Amino acid sequence: MRPTREITRSPAANGIGAFLSTTIGRLLVSLFVPAVTFLVLYQVFIFLRDTQIPQWITAIIAILWGVGGVLALFTISNYVIEQLGPAWRRRLIPFVFVGPALAILTWYLVLPTIRSFIASLYDARGINFVGLDNYIYAFTSQEMLQSYRNNFLFWMIFGTAMSVGFGLLIAVLVDRTHPVFETICKALIFMPMVISGVGASVIWKFIYEYRPTGANQIGLLNGIITALGFESQGWLLLQPWNNLFLVIIMVWLQTGYSMVILSAAIKGIPSDLLEAGRIDGANEFQIFRSIILPSIQGTLITVTTTIILFTLKIFDIVQSMTGGNFGTQVIANVQYVQLFRQVHNGRAAAIAIILLLAVLPVMYYNLRQFGKQTEAFR
Amino acid sequence: MTSTTFSAPRHRPRIRFGTVMVYVVMIAITLLWITPTIGLLVSSFRPADDVKTSGWWTVVTNPDTARFTLDNYRVVLGLPLPDRPAPTGGSRVGMEVALLNTLTVALPATIIPILIAAFAAYGFAWIDFPGRRALFILVVAMLVVPLQISLVPILRDYVALQLGGTYLGVWLAHTGFGLPLAVYLLYNYVSTIPRDIFESAFLDGATHFTIFTRLILPLSMPALASFAIFQFLWTWNDLLVALVFLGAEPRVQVVTQRLLSLLGQFGQDWHLLTSGAFVSMVVPLIVFFSLQRFFVRGLMAGSVKG
To answer: Which residues of B touch A170 (CB under 8 A)?
Structure first.
């Protein structure tokens, strides 16, 4: 079946083939296919955006069109290239497979890194070159300085320490309980992980809400405080401690993550190692310090760096709880405000570059650990 | 790392004081952890006046005065109330519209990157071509780039292409931000599939495309599922990408955006906030409880999303 096609390949394809086998030709093909699909998809979506047909029909068309379009993209481009001769079929097929991914990555991440850097040297509307002005803003303005304090001190140090600390504590404790009990506890503690930052903020509004002392409290924390005879507090206005109250929301969300991963690591420690320690007369604390802790060190680093990354980019909890007011500003929120409310592209881009530089070393460390542990995925 | 589920294969039963303490502490922590969610759940079934004037815990402390209703859910989902018709126009909350929008964003934003990443993973793992290593390193290097980097330039492109406020624009953005991790994880999986499986297929004259669609995709299902759940929850819960690329038009807004604007007006809408938040959580919670095993596995691998 296959040899016949190679014999009967069309002569016209040879001319194109010669061109396509050059580097430029290959590059063009890898860009051509996504470009065509994109154009077709694009037209339909402009139509869908402006149309007045019922919303659920739009939704179904959109989903089918989007997913079907991508499938069609691969099938058609593969079919076209299958029709060509074996020599440059071999050269082009790789780009059918990796081309779309490379094109999208180039558009969404590779080029934006360069473009953001360039934009960070220009003014609000990207017209006049302003040199390092935006960086001077980013390192001297009151809101950014406040953001550094909040991001690094409250979110990164307190947030990460509490998430990892609680996660480790729970993982160690729950390992000693009955499997059914363990499963239930872990599922319930882990559950907040699937809740959005905005959803979590709504939940915690009912914890932190302030009503004057004497009035009926609807926030749980003030309910408890006033029942104990203390004055009710405006938790989200108490600077700088309000940051800590926001951080607790993140801890509530993220502890489940560190617990599950650390728990898996603890279960991976060979039983005989622990038994040997017990036979030697070590108490539970010594076993934890000298056997468990060293065994899960790699996992601990992964979990810690992952949560640090999360805290550096924290956005939705702050945006929905305080909007960055009352001394709770964070880097990602300043960027959002600069982008949309101030419409200052230069500053927004400069903040993005700073965020990239802050994330870079942590991410490098995280990936290095992660590379050693990818078996976790299988 | 074989045990990645919530089950506990290793168990050492010993009854003594320390063990009892462990149970007591764990029960306390677990109760502490679920109290906030229970508070929201209880509040969402209380009448509007009650939500605003008394704490949800009074349902437990003063059970006699407790009243329950489904009205909060009716209002946020645009259903008619017993005593008045469904609200229209500006007064409606429109959570049902937002739910549909979120589904329209999240489903393709999950499937498209996985499809593209699976193809790329196969290409990088099993097809030899010049520049393969360098390009793969480029893809993995993109893991370090936070998505904030692309907001300014991509927004500019979207204005030029009129892509702002379209589903396509949001899908592509989610695809771009999800791809590095997806390619990396799927590459790790696909590259370990034994070579023998391909050899015979090649000898039978199968093309890469046939091998990929007939052999690799089915074989990679566990890895695909793990990543899919992770990406789905990420796109479902996302706020920033939606705010930036979907815009403020209520017709296209997703649940997190609706919830955020409800939060902004919380002065009078406490009761709607509760049911609205719960509606936004239902799908992730269903996904979580039904697919826990896959979810946890995907999470272990997928913790480094940029």
So the answer is: 26, 29
